[in-house]
Amino acid sequence: MNALFTQQLTVLNAGLQSFADNITRAGGDAVALSWQPPAGGDREGGRVLASLLNHPQIEAANEQAMAQYLAAQPMLVDVMRAGEAIPALDKHKRILHAGPPIAWNDMCGPVQGAILGAILYEQWADTLEQAQALIEQGEVSFEPCHHYDAVAPMAGIISRSMPLWVVENTENSQRVFSNFNEGLGKVLRFGANGDGVIEHLQWMGTELAEAMKAMLAESGPIELKPIMAQALHMGDEVHNRNIAATGLLMKQLLPALLSTALPVEQIQRAIRFITANDHFFLNLSMAACKSMLKAAEGVPGSTMVTVMARNGVNFGIRLSGTGDTWFQAPANPVDGLFFPGYGVDDAAADLGDSAITETAGVGGFAMASSPAIVKFVGGTPADATQNSRSMQRVTIGSNPAFTLPALNFAPTAAGIDARKVLDSSVLPIINTGIAHKQAGVGQIGAGITTAPMSCFVDALSALARQISR
Amino acid sequence: MNALFTQQLTVLNAGLQSFADNITRAGGDAVALSWQPPAGGDREGGRVLASLLNHPQIEAANEQAMAQYLAAQPMLVDVMRAGEAIPALDKHKRILHAGPPIAWNDMCGPVQGAILGAILYEQWADTLEQAQALIEQGEVSFEPCHHYDAVAPMAGIISRSMPLWVVENTENSQRVFSNFNEGLGKVLRFGANGDGVIEHLQWMGTELAEAMKAMLAESGPIELKPIMAQALHMGDEVHNRNIAATGLLMKQLLPALLSTALPVEQIQRAIRFITANDHFFLNLSMAACKSMLKAAEGVPGSTMVTVMARNGVNFGIRLSGTGDTWFQAPANPVDGLFFPGYGVDDAAADLGDSAITETAGVGGFAMASSPAIVKFVGGTPADATQNSRSMQRVTIGSNPAFTLPALNFAPTAAGIDARKVLDSSVLPIINTGIAHKQAGVGQIGAGITTAPMSCFVDALSALARQISR
User: What residues form the membrane-spanning segments (chains A, B) (predicted)?
Assistant: First the structure.
């Protein structure tokens, strides 16, 4: 102890910067570590975390969940009517939505608008007023897409007559689903429900669905991970930017589409729609990500995050080890770029199942692949690269199937470990579109947001109760 | 002078590193500048350069040439038979080739093989032996593509029955031409001339040409710079990597192709060919670059480089101020990656008109946009970025139409100033494919090479003789 007072000290300061400043001012030598208490200083979070770190059962469970995620081989195999793919939709007047469960009265404007539109589309009512009355009479029930292994962007509405992409993991034969991307402009996923929107959905549910199904019958199953991997080398992060992936998909499928026996006018209309929609691949990227993460679900003790999703009010997550339970918190605000004439006061809260892409290691986690996306979500290419780097701090490992040229082909950070989120106080980053809070106005911007810390604290608390030390 | 011996010196050393090392060893303080004598130490080059630096006529001429290059708006307007677009090809048995002029006996294997194939394709002879005899009798003449405002990759063969893309600069109505890309495998541009190659050329010259012409009649003119600009944000450098640009072109043109009155089988075959050929856009990128540079030709006194091209033996350049005169030197070796089983001893010398892309500020100059290309040409993404940065040292300015995400959307270096090449001793960088030196083996690798210094010295010497100081 005496030595402390007789020799020159070099101080490593973990905590407030001002402690280090004082030492430096007094002529001492101090290095201030960039350190924060776990879980952003949350006491319960810190306690739970301490009980779960270096835990043999959890390490083994995460290794298993991660291996199952990495081994997944999602293939696009078919197109089915939603009621056929998910029989519960044919049994009841039931509509699926994005994010964790939420009651009608609590839903945000775009989700309510989209549900009313889906009721018109299903011809359960002739007017918006009748549709609203039907809901108020309790005739229509609502449930998250994720409850049926489905994912859908923004409002995330799936009703029985809509066509779904069917994606099968050939490793375990599990099937997952996503709806078709409607394109931009007035669309149901942003809460629009006018005549044009419903007519467009009708065309998608009949002619387009028929063309896509016939095309896949001709082509056979399509591997989705190689398309995503190649798109990551072409400036996409396959969440908010899908222009390259859409092109690669169509390059692969066009010969099959042209080989179907369908009338050439029907093929023309399908191709016109797809070539005009740079987000066409998004829903397939989401389904592929859901497929990879479904493979990792239900491993007892695993702290790996298998779902992140938003319903326009709350952000919800699920862990592999806690199964179907949702852990929710109010969604964080979105830091983004707004289209001219709009601002943060116009924005709905963070919305959609599309954060499944970040959960699977792409999207915001792979922003280094997509420097051009900063023109859309804000920031600089250096920020994008830094985001990809920092996500390595919260993941179990990385995914060698998805590499980032700007990081010298390093694999993307993947397999979010809820413990590491608490330990580092680094929140998972999500690239997201921003919807107007009123139904039907549509997209008003895009930006970057984060998953709220308390979801992860609550999820780990629940897991800790299941686990023995 | 006495002060030199009485005070502490800090030495700035321009020249040999060992001078600085000696000072440092003696306890002095020396910074070694990374400096080289102009023109790599060439005495004649240094003398010529001194006479041309800060020369009012040259500065004004370069400003004009650069402005004309920047203002060019190349549009894809039509497809024509080569003999129709370039009447000299119908008048004589004349075949165009890549690079500067060269006599039959001096040509490399792939160019000779490709010329023999073109003679079979034109049915001027029935066998390779007859074709060879025809050439030895002096019945066939050869000329560079550039002499007719045309460009073509590798061997660069254009004969009268081949289809050409017609690209028009809407700023000045000048037209330039390029041939169609044949795809990979056994192809004429690498010197292959077997039956399959000739049959494929026949299909391209009839059915494919008809489909492309009908498609353009339906679509109207297509702006090429926006496609190139977008592809630069999608991992292409539009020389050795054209996968994104090919997709963007087809996305734009597919609806028109499907709207033609052509039989669906013909459309199917065209689409199958194009979707299987990631280099399909290369020839259009080259034509667009030729169009931009043709706009800059013939400005008296301008030291701007308007052509860089290789014939498999020599590298040739042209300056705006020296018009049609070629300045040639033996091509530099290519530093690259070889396909398995091949090495540098198998390689033909640097070949093709495709260095027109670097001359226009893309290709090797835009490598920062294409980190994934290092998997093809060698090096690391950091090298690719550094190459784009270093090209700023040899150009008059940059092209705001073409921006590089990895350099925070900086515009590409463009408008090579031959004086700056001498002054900096930095040679223009070229991404290039490597052909086997024997006709018909095909591509055996890809890599990076540079333009030889003596071309630039000779071109400036010629310009100096025209100019008064």
Answer: none
